[in-house]
Each structure stands twice: as C-alpha cells, then as structure tokens.
Amino acid sequence: MLFENQRAFAQSLDQQDPLHAFRNEFLFPQQNGTPFIYLCGNSLGLQPKMARSYVDQQLNNWENMAVEGWFEGDTPWMYYHKELKWLMGNIVGASAAEVCPMNTLTVNLHLLMVSFYRPSAGRFKIIMEAGAFPSDQYAIESQVRFHGYDPKEAIIEVAPGAGENTLRTADILAAIADNGDQIALVLFGGINYFTGQWFDMPAITQAGHAAGAVVGFDLAHAAGNVPLKLHDWDIDFACWCSYKYQNAGPGGISGIFVHEKHFSDTSLHRFAGWWGYNEQQRFKMEKGFIPEAGADGWQVSCTQVIPMALYYASLKIFEKAGFIEPLRKKSEQLTAYLCYIIDEVNKQLGFEQFKIITPATAEDRGAQVSIVAKHNAKEIFNALMAHHVLGDWREPNLIRLSPVPLYNSFEDVFLVGERLMAISKTIITHRN
C-alpha cells in the first residue's frame, strides 16, 4: 500500500477497517480529562470494559455460595480453567488439551524447565538469545546452577553481528548445529522484548530437534500478537503472560503449552501439586502423584479464579474478532504505517533522528516498533507523555511504540507522527 502522511488518509483507513469498532471494547487512560494515544500494549494491555462484569460474576458467586462455589453455580471454580482452554488454544495454535492457564510466567518457565531441561555429562548446554528479557536470563542461569553446572560453560548466547541490532536466523541455526551434540535445550523468546524481532520459530525448532535437543519458547511478546502454530511447528513447550497483548490485567495469569507427544512420557520430572493430580481421583487424597491428562497435569496450585476471569474477558473479545488472523492483517498495516510515519518525521527534520531497529519485513516483527532517538531521547519521550502519547521507555535511548490492532487506529499513528515532529523540532532546535 502507498501511504500518505495526511490525517484524512489515516481516517479513510479507519473507515475501511472491519475491526475499528473493537477499540470501543476498551478503557483508555486519561490525563487531565484527555485520553492518551496508547501505544504500550507490549508492556500492559488496556482494560476491557467487560472485565469488571466477569470479575463481579465471580465475586457474586463467592458472596452467595462461598465454598460451594467450587462445585456449584454457573461457572464452578473446580473446572473454571476449562472455560479458557479452547480460547487459549486458538491464540497459540494448539489443542485445548495442550494448554492450561496457571501461575505467572517465570514460575511456569521454571516448572517447565524441571521437565524439559534434563542435562547429562555430555549434553548440558542451553542455547538462548543474547539480550533476552532479564527474567529469562535469571531463570535459566539458576536452573543451570541447580543442576551443578557453570552458566559460563552451559549457556550459549547468540548475539547480533557487529553493527547489527537483530539476529540472523542463519547465525542461530549455525550455533545450534555447531554445538549440537552438547545441547540439551534450545530456549528462545518468540519475539525479543527490546528490538521487537520475531524469530523464525519453526526453523529454530527444526534445527534444535535435528541436534537432539528439546525446544521451548517464552511467548510473552508473541502470544496474542502474531500467528502461532505451536502444535504444528512441533514445539515441545512454551509459556506466556496474558497481560500484554492479551489484556488480562497487571500480573495477569500465565499460560503454558506442552505438546501432546509428551503426554504419555512417564519419565518426565515435574514439581507436582494437588491440583495437577488426576481430576477423577483428586479427592481421594492418596499418596503417589498421578498427573491429570495433558497440560493440566503440570498444575501445582488451585484455580486462580479472579485472574482467570480477567483473562476470560479478554479472550472472549479475541473470539469475537476472529482470533489472530484478522488482527494480524490489520497489525501488519498499522506497523508499516507507523514505520512510514517515522521515516516522514526524519525527512522533515532533514536527518535521521529516529532509527528503527525493529526488522523492516512484516514476517520478522509483530506490533512493536523500537526506535532509537539519537538526540534528547528522554526529553522527547517525556514530551510525548505530556502530549498524551503513552509509549514505553528503555535505557539508554529507546522508545517502544506498539500499535495494537484491537484498540489502536491509523489516526492514532498519524497523530503520534504529528506530535513527534513538533516536539523534535522544538527540543532539538533549542538544545542543538
């Protein structure tokens, strides 16, 4: 599409957008009575308007039934997680049996590594991306130490080449091949939180399996953002949070995926809890752990009803929108338009003030655009906030902007460019 840096053009795209009305399903933060242009869904998604009613339903059940709410009422808590499983499967490309809502992201990463990181004297190394989100780095390092290995020897980080910001798929595959007989686990993010790069998950999985390793992904920035086919891609396990692109609230419940090929593997270790015990026998309270079938067998603690209600509210919006494919079509256009608008700002300034480090090709990115501001970066970010544009800041000079297709518009993107231009001319001219 040939874009135009005109408000009327952006409005015409919104008029043609079949998903445009979904922004009315969400609550936008305000400053002095003026709503923000919200481009921070990569960090925390907006609150669905229906979230309160879904939570109120469970509060009413608690009020009216108390402990009987576990088995009585319209949504018995004992089985409430099953209400979400089919919806979650459609988000990540899995069967309902292969997914389960539970815990929080890093807790789930640890629990899954208990099962799927099984080092031996000859095969103990983990391949991961350099610059992964710190929580992943800490979790992997601690797991390696737990098994008695030195992280400096056991963890192989694949980094971008000199002068580059993102990873080449060929370099990732080469690192796997070069260390193949020593690799126990390949564990990547689906999308890098800093650059917004979407990794070639099928290629990484295929290479990891060819090397004899288990392959898993942290999908914090991918789930609800890009099309995923975890089952078809033969990925062994994955986990994600629900509070970014899936709008389930701060600290929202996490989800896990375990490929069905592992369901019958009785040799897998796991940290067990009562809620992961076979559902039909759970209340016999007997010794000897017998896991529930599927991903539910990795549960440890009981259903987190209120966080699940928040997640459920958002998942029902995804269902109404047609899940990921329609959203992805709009997202590709929104993100391309944002990149175009940033380039237009640079042209008007007469130099490259804003460098986009997110990959230029649609198949290599999701909704996030990461922008390095070369001059007065923090001042520009603060000024955007003052002008009702809420993005995300990362040291030392990175601004992350994420137009989310469920609630952002093309006019939002145009207005961001207009305000960014005015702010840059004022600040950079004044200081330089």
From TrEMBL:
Enzyme Commission (EC) number: 3.7.1.3
Cofactor: pyridoxal 5'-phosphate
Statement: the UniProt record of this protein carries the keyword Oxidoreductase: no
N6-(pyridoxal phosphate)lysine modifications at: K244
Alphabetical GO biological process terms: anthranilate metabolic process; L-kynurenine catabolic process; L-tryptophan catabolic process to kynurenine; NAD+ biosynthetic process; quinolinate biosynthetic process
Pathway note: Cofactor biosynthesis; NAD(+) biosynthesis; quinolinate from L-kynurenine: step 2/3; Amino-acid degradation; L-kynurenine degradation; L-alanine and anthranilate from L-kynurenine: step 1/1
One Pfam family hit: KYNU_C
GO molecular function: kynureninase activity; pyridoxal phosphate binding
Reactions it catalyzes: L-kynurenine + H2O = anthranilate + L-alanine + H(+); 3-hydroxy-L-kynurenine + H2O = 3-hydroxyanthranilate + L-alanine + H(+)
Record keywords, A-Z: Hydrolase, Pyridine nucleotide biosynthesis, Pyridoxal phosphate
Main enzyme class: hydrolase
Annotated positions binding pyridoxal 5'-phosphate: L105, T106, F133, P134, S135, D136, D218, H221, Y243, W274
Keyword Hydrolase attached: yes
A GO cellular component annotation in the UniProt record: cytoplasm
Function in brief: Catalyzes the cleavage of L-kynurenine (L-Kyn) and L-3-hydroxykynurenine (L-3OHKyn) into anthranilic acid (AA) and 3-hydroxyanthranilic acid (3-OHAA), respectively.
Subunit structure of this chain's protein: Homodimer.
Family under the similarity heading: Belongs to the kynureninase family.
Protein name: Kynureninase
Organism ancestry: Bacteria, Pseudomonadati, Bacteroidota, Chitinophagia, Chitinophagales
